[in-house]
Design goal:
- By secondary structure, the chain is mostly beta strands.
- Among the domains are: 47 residues, no CATH class; 178 residues, Macroglobulin (MG2) domain (Immunoglobulin-like), CATH 2.60.40.1930; 84 residues; 108 residues, TonB-dependent receptor, plug domain (Ferric Hydroxamate Uptake Protein, Chain A, domain 1, Beta Complex), CATH 2.170.130.
- It is built from ten helices and 48 strands.
- The strands form 13 sheets. Strands 25, 26, 27, 28, 45, 46, 47 and 48 form an eight-stranded mixed beta sheet that branches. It has a five-stranded mixed beta sheet with strand order 2-8-7-4-5. It has a five-stranded mixed beta sheet with strand order 35-42-43-40-41.
- α1 packs antiparallel against α2 and α3 crosses α7.
- It is a multi-pass membrane protein.
- Its main location: membrane.
- GO terms for molecular function: siderophore uptake transmembrane transporter activity.
Length: 838
Amino acid sequence: MRLTFLNRVRLGISLVVVSLSAVCFIDDGDFSKLLVERFQTYNQQHPTEKVYVHTDRDAYLVGETIWLKGYLMNGATHEADSVSRVLYIDLVDPIAQRVRLRMQLRATAGYAPGQLFLPDSVAAGTYQLRGYTNFMRNYPDAYFFSKTITILGADVANAESANGVATNVRQQRSTQNRPDVQFLPEGGQLVEGIESRVAFKAIDAFGLGIPVEGFILNAKKDTVIGFTSTHLGMGYFTINPEAGQTYTASLRLGDGTTLSYSLPAVQTQGVVMQVDNLSHKENIKVYVRHNKTSADATAKLTLLAQTRGQVIHVVNIPIAKKTSLIQLPRNNFPEGISQLTVFDETQKPVGERLVFINKNEQLSITLAPDKKTYKNREKVDLTISTTNAQGKPVSANVSLAAVDAHLSPEADSGSATIVSHLLLSSDLTGTVEQPGYYFNPLNLERWMKLDLLLMTQGWRRFVWTDVLAGTTPPIKHFVERGLSLTGRVVRPNQKDIGGKVKLTFLLAKRDSAGTGDRRDFLLGETDDAGNFGAYDLDFTDTTTVLIQGVKGKANRALAISLDQLLMPTVTITKVPYNPLEFRRDELAEFIRRTKEYQEIERQIRRNGEVLLQTVTVKAKKYQEADSRVIYGTPDASVKFTSQNTAGRMTILDVIQGQVAGVNVTGNGFNARVQIRGAANFNGPISPLFVLDGMPMDLQAILGISVQDVERVDVLKGASAAIYGSRASGGVISILTKRGNPNYDLSQEVTPGTLVAKLPGYAPLREFYAPRYDVKKPEHVRPDYRTTLFWNPMIQTDADGKATVSFFTSDAKTTVRLQAEGITVSGMPGVGKTIVKAE
């Protein structure tokens, strides 16, 4: 399981290294060669995954369902990745920093459709929807997918309170006294006598940019230069630091308040990197300046350029050159964020810069309705086309949502999409405000502003000291090819158990027909530290699991814990601000219409329940067949009760003297049993022992607690023939309480045993959209749905085509359609359009 994932990433890196030798300057034995080797090794041992979650909309009413689809992708290549097959979805309360709802979705070929119901227990407010795999937990949760979701209360009175909250938020933002302002020298440091660009970013308490202006003062309070933010609180200025000077920024807010912030200290010696990613179409220009002195004339600086763990360029720069220009061909870079790092002559990283490489390799999704205007309840035939940047058709997997734009306002034109997440946000820490802005061709200055963003945004997926030292953090969370049960066994006082513990797992789950429980048994043991794991399990919905541990001879002084019962930690440092703003009338309309439709859904469910008149049925009581028993009526049976098991150590102790013809000799764990008449020329023949339908040896039977047994059946002679020649000595069938299909595992209180209810894969529901071309009784009811259509699994063919259809509602409104998707090779795309319903 784990080797498959690592090998796929290793193959990708080996291909990059082949192309690397043609574009880099590497001398045998120098630092640059060691750097590449260590960096490759690190990324082979620490591959990455990415997750994106498309939801039908951004605002919901309590009692509604969030329809969603998860996309799982290889972190290095962005290929649709099926390695992890479990996607976790959390609904996080950012104020309480708690997970309110959680579910697990089955991922197939990198796609995980599903839905999340919002029960009444979820309070109205702003939440974060998170998506991640178990393997992604090896990295900071800043790299999990996250989006803001608004949940509104179920009464119209909340409309005013919700608008009041929005008003208060806006007031808090505008009256905040001290914004967080950071000043970030390009490349990392200010150095005496070397002109540098200094980027800055001003954000409020919600992590959103605010416009600022001010000027820079030196130690004598003389003005050096003024500055003004140009985009979402960001901007930059140029400064030539003087020896012995300290610099302070004087900031003016919109209300006239003046605040002071210190700039980073000026270094006596150092390296400055300046990047020009805008002026030249063919190359990225990197200027490296320094004022370092070195006694070694052969000493070198090293520039490494890498994209998502793939080394693109390595360049050695003689330290004798105080100023160097390195031109990096764009064609060698994949699309997305690349990181440029400069190492000094002592092999320490002294400067970093992020750049974005645009190669116009995105998927184009076109939504073409058969008309632009429709009547109420009229059929909409929609053609979906997927092409590459050159207009050639490509096959893609797409999810599509059609919503009433009046009832579901769009957050803003810069909202996140699969394109902005995959190529930008997923490789950055911190909040990226309006990520979609940078991928909208209508924004003519988007590349300049994106370059400004990357001068101020953090990127810390790994630490260079670990890479260079050749030490890699251990992988604690492995790739899940199925559901997992992991935990630990300790003493009741929480001390180590001191050796391996034998474990029995019993999973009770509903069968596919929903008519009863299916029970699966698993046997295993812990490691010496008491850790255990059962992997690659497959079950849907809530499942009851019983785990029993035995150490030595029926030692029950054990405490068993499951990792799945521990809620994950949440490390949100800022409350996300919700950009959605309803008008008061829109909000009241949304709540009223949604409540009406919820009542319609409940009425449809009630109509499906048929009430029968009272009837009297005279018949013999049907006895449900016990799947553990393949025989008819046994020759003898002993029911285990509290009376006959008192003081008995083993099962044989209980049946001794209870069944005619069954002779038990000895006692305790030295007992033996023989059924009279079971012998051949070689002497007596031992009976066959069967535990809940499974043949077992005598020692295993003697280890079972008499308190766990429901009854013991004895088969003699011809009655035992159903088990074949192995039962020539008769059969002793032990039926346990837990093996009974009707036994309630939740009542289990045996020491050394854990019973818990665990969620499996969330059952996948089909989105209900009425078809008005076929008359049905429920069509007489009004139809004012917010989400008119949702289809998470649309696959376009080799010609890049797919067709879907749905019906408009009773509302005279604008229907907003948005499709998001990706090709198998990892090319993401978004398509939007609107239709009118009149």
